[in-house]
Amino acid sequence: VQLVESGGGLVQAGGSLRLSCAASGIIFSINAMGWYRQAPGEQRELVATITSDGIANYVDSVKGRFTVTRDNAKKMVYLQMNNLKPEDTAVYYCNADVKNLRFGQSRAYWGQGTQVTVSS
Question: What is the pLDDT, as a whole number, of residue 114?
Answer without folding.
Answer: 97
